[in-house]
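Sharing a chain and its predicted structure for anyone who wants a worked example. Both blocks are below, sequence first, tokens second.
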Amino acid sequence: MSLFKTKEWWRTQCGVNESFDRRSLLVAPLFGADRKDIVIVGSHSGCLRIYSPLSQWIDETKLPSGYKSTDLIIETQIGDCIVDMKTGKFVSGSQDTRLAILTSTKLIIYSIVLNQGSVEYGL
């Protein structure tokens, strides 16, 4: 007997013929005071995707609303294999949470800012 029940809440398909491992997925609270949980996916081919899932449970169908195109905030090509990803306070003197991407040749630190009402996203 289990103490927990699981339900599928949200899913997406990340690219075609891309490879991933256990370090390819990161869920972290980002975006300043909002601190929403964001899903970050990095592939070995260097594609970085950042999602803000807004799935809701639909009582009539007993299913989640699922993936919407607006869930994808950013999709960009890093240009090198993404080895690992972490979030933290990586910049001295700043309390902002940053995204660190480790590739096979370098460590990249991103500051991610969400502009409300903007239709163009970018790193």
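Comments welcome. The CA atoms of residues 51 and 72 lie 5 Å apart.
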